[in-house]
Write a structure and sequence with these properties.
With 423 residues, this protein is an alpha/beta fold. It contains 13 helices and 17 strands. It folds into 2 domains: 153 residues, Alpha-Beta Complex (Aspartate Aminotransferase, domain 1); 257 residues, 3-Layer(aba) Sandwich (Aspartate Aminotransferase, domain 2). The protein binds 4'-deoxy-4'-aminopyridoxal-5'-phosphate (PMP).
């Protein structure tokens, strides 16, 4: 933080800090879907600390589990087992389909994706990785290469062997919602830019940072087949889409009818605790046999206890069904808003992972970036916090804690209506 910095340097610092508002908010307290600033003002949180607070800010069950474990054992590192991590790995594996039964714990989404890329390369003996043009998978030196847009990278070498395929974006892409047509680009990439053999493919099923883009229908099944035929493995980045957020299913990939070989998860897994995991098959994990996997804090007992509480709450409160119900209501109300505000070009997403894209002209789809920032600022002043994203920064990202209610959804839409009318 820019302590004691001359004011002229603050604007640049604010950019580096990724602050979302011109007048930043200082948050001091969180309760379920609400945040409170230092003056005690309440905000409805529709962004959940970038899609991270899954079951609610300071959910009592998570708080209690963390407090109890903190008083018992806070840290061992991976050289010892602890009961929390052992039970947690089992509980997580129980919620995975197919043969996804081996769990590695790390601390962040970037680390999880780094590890997935490493496993893919070790297991296949290949190097090349196919990713998407609008992808975001982390800011580590390893994952930066997978990101599809310069905004999300630093100006330095990005590693080798990353190939960015056409983004299967139903709104902006050339082939609409025709997934197999975009998939043809992956076939071209494999034959033209790789030795014909690849290490793998990585994608989210709904691109989060990329602006809530749901991959075109039929895209993933077609690409998974091509990648496997080229000797590669398929990695699903469930950092944002996991744990029921997309509604009806636990994992985003289930909506697309595919079964990945490696799944990465972070953010919602720990409700804000620094926790992340990579889950894979015993066959792929065997490529680590005799090799060191070490991570000082990975599987920390306190975070594991919190992670276990998150799983219990998601199941008991039936949050995936709740996301499906409230999300469908919110999506339809946002659709209604789009009929009255021409600036809304697209409304999309699933469950409580929704996006609203603002454009200056519905035909040219010219991004309305300044307007997006202005509406977000007004909504913040009216007590609703949202995120924004997409390559052009013109997409509202609506991804609240999963306890968000229908009344919250109605309030958000009413406030957005007011803010859009003020433009
Ligand atoms: N994958 C996805 C899909 C993400 O959205 C993010 C973070 N925004 C990451 C990976 C990286 O996670 P972290 O910031 O925890 O490293």
């Amino acid at each position: 933080l820019a302590c004691g910095c001359p004011p002229e340097q603050l604007a640049a610092m604010a950019m580096a800090l990724f602050l979302h508002f011109k007048k930043p908010v200082m948050i001091v307290e969180g309760k379920m879907q609400y945040l409170y600033d230092e003056r005690g003002r309440r905000y409805l949180d529709a962004f959940a600390g970038i899609v991270t607070v899954s079951v609610g800010h300071c959910h009592p069950e998570v708080t209690e589990a963390v407090a109890r474990q903190s008083a018992l054992l806070q840290h061992t590192t991976t050289i010892y087992l602890n009961p929390q991590v052992a039970e947690y790995a089992k509980e997580l594996a129980d919620r995975m389909p197919g043969n996804l039964k081996v769990v590695y714990f790390v601390n962040s989404g970037s680390e999880a994706n780094d590890m997935a890329l490493m496993l893919a390369r070790l297991y296949t003996g290949n190097w090349d990785v196919v990713c998407l043009r609008n992808a975001y998978h982390g800011m580590s030196i390893g994952t930066m290469g997978t990101c599809g847009q310069h905004t999300w990278k630093q100006p330095m070498p990005q590693g080798f062997g990353y190939h960015h395929a056409l983004n299967p974006d139903p709104y902006r892409g050339a082939f609409g919602d025709d997934g197999p047509r975009y998939a043809a680009d992956v076939a071209d990439l494999i034959s033209a830019a790789t030795p014909g053999r690849v290490a793998g493919f990585v994608a989210e099923t709904i691109q989060g940072v990329g602006g809530a883009v749901s991959l075109a229908s039929g895209y993933l099944p077609a690409v998974y087949k091509m990648i496997r035929e080229a000797g590669g493995v398929c990695i699903a980045d469930e950092v944002q889409t996991g744990f029921g957020r997309t509604g009806s299913h636990y994992w985003g990939f289930e909506r697309q009818g595919v079964l990945p070989d490696i799944v990465t998860m972070a953010k919602g897994i720990g409700n804000g605790l620094p926790l992340a995991a990579v889950v894979t098959t015993p066959e792929i994990a065997a490529s680590m046999a005799g090799r060191l996997h070490f991570n000082t804090y990975g599987g920390n007992p306190v975070c594991s206890a919190g992670g276990r509480a998150v799983l219990r709450v998601v199941d008991r409160e039936r949050l995936q069904q709740h996301c499906a119900d409230v999300g469908a209501h919110l999506l339809s109300r946002l659709g209604g808003l789009a009929q009255r505000h021409d600036i809304i070009g697209d409304v999309r997403g699933a469950g409580l992972m929704l996006g609203v894209e603002l454009v200056k002209d519905r035909r040219t789809k010219e991004p309305a970036k300044a307007e997006t920032a202005a509406v977000m600022e007004t909504m913040k002043d009216l007590g609703v916090l949202m995120g924004k994203g997409g390559l052009h920064g013109n997409v509202f990202r609506i991804k609240p804690p999963m306890c968000f209610s229908r009344a919250d959804a109605d309030f958000l839409v009413d406030v957005m209506d007011v803010a859009l009318s003020k433009l």
